[in-house]
C-alpha cells in the first residue's frame, strides 16, 4: 500500500478540491458576518504559509494564537502545521501570570492575536522575551489601548506573500499542535498533537456514532478554538466538507441563538454551562432553532434534566461526550444502542447521562490501585485508563511529570469510573474530588447530579470539608434558577434522601446558596476556589 | 501521541468489548440460519488463532480461503491477520487453471474450504503442491464427491485449540490480506493489503458521505468475500458495531429478498446485475423490504434507470461507488451535495449516475498522455490516477509488471474519466474499451447507458469491431427484459440518435440480441468473450 501520510495538508487539499463551493462563516467582534468559500480559504492559507516562511518560521517552531473562533484563527489552524511548525492555541481566559508561564514554556516565536485582545498581551509582553513578533488580526473589535511590540498587521503580511503552492509531505508523526491543560497548579502541562493524531481524531469523531458529521452538517463550535482544538471540529468539518460557523466572542444568549437561527446550524458543541444559559434565554425569547438537531456536550457532567428539556422543548439531542486535553479530546460518546431502544424514556435518559461508549480507535479500562483490571459490571469502580492513536504518551517538555503514563502504554486519566457490560462508561468522580466519609467514598458527581434535578436549581457543586466526626463531609453549593425563588436546604436534602444512604447526606448547614459558581477559563467548575472559600469561612 | 497500531486485532477487541451483544447472522447452504453474538464470534476467533499457531502458521504465511459469505469465512478474516499471516481470498468462480495459477502465485500454505466447494479444489489438488493441508468448513451443503488431501475438519481444529488470548501488537504496515484482480490474461496480479490500509479503509468507508455505517446498520454484503474483501464491509461492520448478515450462496431473487425481509436489512452492496435481477423478482413477488434504505453498487456502471426505479418503487437509494482491487476498493462515492438539492430530479439523477466524489483519504487526478494534470471542468477527459493510504503501491511478487505505478506516487487506473469543478468524477471508458472511429473516440460506456434506458432492455454491452471504413465500429449486444417482447435494432438506434452524433451510431446490423451477457467471476461483463464471439462470426 502507498505510504501516504495522514496529515493536515491532505485535509486542506481535499477541502479545496472536493468542496470548493462550501462556506465558512465568521461573526466578528462588531456583530458583522464574514463569509467566504473553501476556495477563498485555501488561497489565503497558502499565502499565509508563504508569509510564515518569509518570517523565518522553521519546522518545529511554536507559533502562538490568542484569538476567538474566527476565520483568521482557522487559517492559522491549517497554515502553521502545513509549514511544519506547531500551533500553540493560548487560552484567552487564564490569569496573566499563567498565560506568561505557558508562553514561556512553549517558547512561542510568534503570536497571532485578535486586535480586541491585544491589551492582554501588551501587559505581559516584557515577561515573554521568546516572542519575536506579534501579528494583529483585525476582528473589527475596539482598537487596543496598548499593543505588544513589535506589532504587524495580518492582512499586510498576506498581501505581500506569494500565492505559489508548496505542500511539504509532512511526516504524520511530526508535531502539529500544542495545547495546555487548564490545571492551574504547578508547571503548565502541555500536550503535543501529531499530524497523524489530528487526522485520525477527525475521522473518528466524524463517524456516525461519534459526531456523525457530513457535508450536510452546519457546524457551530461554541467550544473555543483554544480549548483542545475546539474538540477537533475545525479539522473534522473540512475533512467532511461541512459548513463551519465561527461565533467569535458571541457565545451566549441572544447573539448565539441569532447566529444559529440565521445560519441554520445543525450541529453545535460546548460545555454544559453554555446550554444551561441558552435554554434560559430561549424560554423567554423566540428563535427558530428548528435546523439544530445535535449538540455535543463535554468538559463536565451533563445533567440529564437538561437533556430532557432540550429534547422535549426543542427536539434537540444533547449528546454527552467525555475526553481530556490528553485525549485530543474525544474518548467516549453517549448514545443509546439500538438494542436498548425498547427501554422506557427514563431508562434511556439514564444511559445518556453516562459518559458513553469508547469511539473507534479509543480503548478504555478501569484498574484497582495495584493496576489490575477490574470487571465491566456497571458497579465496580476503578481508575479510568485510556489508550489510542490520539492519546498522549507524555507531557511536553523535559521536566514534565510523566507519572500519569503507565509502563504498559496507558494514560491514567485521574477519573474514577464504572463500565457496564455493554461498554457504557460512567465517571463517578475525579480522584481528587472524591469525599471519604467514615472510611467510605461519597461521589461528589452523584450528589451534584441529584441536586441539579431540583426544578429551582440551576447549577450545583459539591466539595468536601474536614469533619472531626466523619473525616470528610460533603458541602453543597447551589445557584438558583431565579434569585426570587429560594431553595431551602431541607428541600435539597429531601431530594437526596430518595437515592442516597443516610451517612452520605450533607448537614443542612452544609448547603449554601451562592450567586454563581467559580469557573475555569474553559468553563469548568473550579472546585479549588470553592474549597478556598470554605476554609476562609 | 501514543504509537498505537491501526490493526485488525484492535477492530476485534473493540467489537467484543463495546458491542458484545451484537449479532452475526449467516444463511447456510441448506437455507438454515446460523446466529451468534460478537462475544461468541470473538471467542471462536481466539481459538482459531491458537489452532493456526498449532498448525505451524507463521507471520507472513499465506492462508487461502475458498468459501461463500459466512461466519466461518468471517472468523478467518480476523484470525489469520491477527496471527500475522496473510488472508488470501480465492475467487470461487474462476476457471480451474487460473485458480491453480493464483494459488501457486500466492504459495498458500493452508486452504480453508466450504464443504460444498471441496470438489473444485479436489480437481486441482495435484497442481498446487504448496498447499500442505485443506480444512473443511461445514456449510451444511451436500457432501463433496471427492476431497483434496490431506483434509481435516474446521470444528475439530477449533475444539482442541486453547482459549488463551494472545494478540500480537502487529505493526500496522505488515501485510494482512491478499486479493487478485479478476483480469484473466497474463500473470495473476495480486494486491497486498496492510493492517493500516484495512483499518483506514474501514474508517473511511464508514463516514457519513461514504457508506454512513453505524451500530444501527444491518449490513448484508451480497458482494462476495473473495471480491476485494467484500468491499471491506466485514471490517467496517465490526468497527462500528453493526449487525452483519451473511447470505452464503443465496444471493439472488427470492432467497435474497427473503433474508433481507426477515433480518430487516438496512444496507446492502453488490454489482449492478444483482439489483437488476432482484427488482425483476420484486416486480412479481411481494417482500417487505421497508427496512432497506441504502444499496452500494459498484464493479461496473450503474444505469440511472435502476436508481430511479428503486427509489420510486421501494424508496431505496442505490448509491454508485467506484473502486478497484488496487484501491481496497472504495475510491469514490456518488451522492448529491446539499448545495445541489435544488436541481430537478433528472439533473440529480445525472449526478448520481457519475462515479462521485473521492472519499476522505483518497485523492484523484486526470492526466494527459504525457502525465500532465488536466482541468476539472466536467468535459476534459484523461487517464484517471489515484493515491491514498489504501491504494496499492505495487503488485505482489517479484516478477509483476509495475508499470501502472507512476514515479511520483500515483496509480494509473486504466480508466478514462472527467471530473467536474465540484469534484464529481465520471468514468467515460476503460482505456482498452474505447472505440476509435474515423480518428475520434466513442465511449462504449455512454452507448451502453443510453441503450439500457430502453424499457424492454435489461442489460447491454458495447464492444468494437474492425471496420474498413471507420477503423473501428461499435457493436451493441442487448439482453431482453422479457424474451417475449423483442426489441428492434431500429428502436435502439432511434434512442441513440437523441443523444449521439450520427457517426457514433452503430449500424442496424451491429445490434444483436443475446440470451445473457458473459460475466467474469465477480459479475462484471466480460467483453473479451463478446469480442471473441464477434471474431468467430
Low-confidence stretches of chain A: none
CATH class of the largest domain in chain A: Alpha Beta
Percent helix of chain A, as a range, is: 25-40%
Number of helices, where a helix is a run of at least 4 consecutive DSSP H or I residues of chain A:
16
CATH topology of the largest domain in chain A: Rossmann fold
Mean pLDDT of chain A: 93
Number of domains of chain A: 3
Quaternary state of this entry equals homodimer
What would CATH call the homologous superfamily of the largest domain in chain A?
ANL, N-terminal domain
The dominant shape of chain A is globular
What is the spatial order of strands in the main beta sheet of chain A?
Answer: 2-1-11-10-12-13-14-15-16
Structural class of chain A: alpha/beta
Task: From the alpha carbons, calculate the radius of gyration of chain A and give it in angstroms.
Answer: 23 Å
| Content of β-strand of chain A | 15-25%
CATH architecture of the largest domain in chain A: 3-Layer(aba) Sandwich
- Most residues in contact: chain pair: A-B, 57 and 57 residues
Largest sheet of chain A: 9 strands, mixed
Amino acid at each position: 500500500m502507498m505510504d501516504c501520510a495522514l496529515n493536515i495538508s491532505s485535509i486542506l487539499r481535499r477541502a479545496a478540491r472536493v468542496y470548493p463551493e462550501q462556506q465558512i462563516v465568521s461573526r466578528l467582534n462588531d456583530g458583522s458576518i464574514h463569509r467566504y468559500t473553501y476556495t477563498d480559504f485555501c488561497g489565503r492559507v497558502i499565502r499565509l504559509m508563504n508569509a510564515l516562511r518569509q518570517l523565518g518560521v522553521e519546522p518545529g517552531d511554536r507559533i502562538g494564537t490568542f484569538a476567538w473562533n474566527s476565520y483568521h484563527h482557522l487559517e492559522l489552524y491549517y497554515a502553521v502545521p502545513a509549514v511544519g511548525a506547531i500551533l500553540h492555541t493560548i487560552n484567552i481566559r487564564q490569569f496573566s501570570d499563567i498565560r506568561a508561564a505557558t508562553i514561556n514554556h512553549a517558547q512561542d516565536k510568534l503570536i497571532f492575536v485578535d486586535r480586541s485582545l491585544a491589551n492582554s498581551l501588551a501587559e505581559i509582553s516584557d515577561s515573554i522575551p521568546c516572542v519575536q513578533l506579534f501579528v494583529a488580526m483585525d476582528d473589527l473589535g475596539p482598537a487596543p489601548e496598548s499593543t505588544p511590540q513589535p506589532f504587524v498587521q495580518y492582512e499586510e503580511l498576506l498581501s505581500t506573500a506569494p500565492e505559489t503552492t508548496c505542500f511539504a509531505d509532512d511526516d504524520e508523526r511530526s508535531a502539529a499542535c500544542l495545547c495546555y491543560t487548564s490545571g492551574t497548579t504547578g508547571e503548565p502541562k502541555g500536550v503535543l498533537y501529531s499530524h497523524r493524531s489530528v487526522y485520525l481524531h477527525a475521522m473518528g469523531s466524524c463517524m456516525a456514532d461519534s459526531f456523525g458529521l457530513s457535508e450536510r452538517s452546519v457546524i457551530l463550535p461554541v467550544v473555543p478554538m483554544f480549548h483542545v482544538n475546539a474538540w477537533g471540529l475545525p479539522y473534522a468539518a473540512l475533512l467532511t466538507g461541512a459548513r463551519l460557523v465561527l461565533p467569535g466572542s458571541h457565545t451566549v444568549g441572544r447573539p448565539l441563538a441569532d447566529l444559529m437561527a440565521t445560519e441554520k446550524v445543525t450541529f453545535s458543541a460546548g460545555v454544559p454551562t453554555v446550554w444551561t444559559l441558552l435554554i434560559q434565554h430561549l424560554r423567554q425569547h423566540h428563535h427558530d432553532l428548528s435546523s439544530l438537531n445535535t449538540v455535543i456536550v463535554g468538559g463536565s457532567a451533563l445533567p440529564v434534566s437538561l437533556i430532557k428539556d432540550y429534547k422535549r422543548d426543542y427536539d434537540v439531542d444533547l449528546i454527552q461526550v467525555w475526553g481530556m486535553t490528553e485525549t485530543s479530546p474525544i474518548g467516549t460518546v453517549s448514545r443509546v444502542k439500538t438494542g436498548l431502544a425498547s427501554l422506557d424514556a427514563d431508562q434511556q435518559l439514564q444511559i445518556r447521562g453516562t459518559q458513553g461508549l469508547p469511539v473507534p480507535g479509543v480503548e478504555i479500562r478501569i484498574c484497582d490501585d495495584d493496576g489490575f483490571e477490574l470487571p465491566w459490571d456497571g458497579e465496580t469502580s476503578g481508575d479510568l485508563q485510556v489508550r489510542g492513536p490520539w492519546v498522549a504518551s507524555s507531557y511536553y517538555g523535559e521536566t514534565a511529570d510523566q507519572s500519569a503514563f503507565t509502563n504498559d502504554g496507558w494514560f491514567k486519566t485521574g477519573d474514577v469510573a464504572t463500565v457496564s457490560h455493554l461498554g457504557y462508561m460512567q465517571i463517578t468522580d475525579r480522584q481528587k474530588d472524591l469525599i471519604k466519609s467514615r472510611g467510605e467514598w461519597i461521589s461528589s458527581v452523584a450528589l451534584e447530579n441529584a441536586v441539579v434535578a431540583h426544578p429551582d436549581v440551576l447549577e450545583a457543586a459539591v466539595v468536601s470539608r474536614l469533619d472531626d466526626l466523619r473525616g470528610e463531609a460533603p458541602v453543597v453549593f447551589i445557584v438558583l434558577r431565579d434569585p426570587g425563588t429560594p431553595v431551602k436546604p431541607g428541600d435539597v436534602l429531601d431530594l437526596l434522601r430518595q437515592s442516597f444512604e443516610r451517612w452520605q447526606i450533607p448537614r443542612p448547614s452544609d448547603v449554601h446558596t451562592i450567586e454563581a459558581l467559580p469557573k475555569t477559563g474553559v468553563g469548568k467548575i473550579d472546585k479549588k476556589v470553592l474549597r478556598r472559600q470554605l476554609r476562609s469561612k
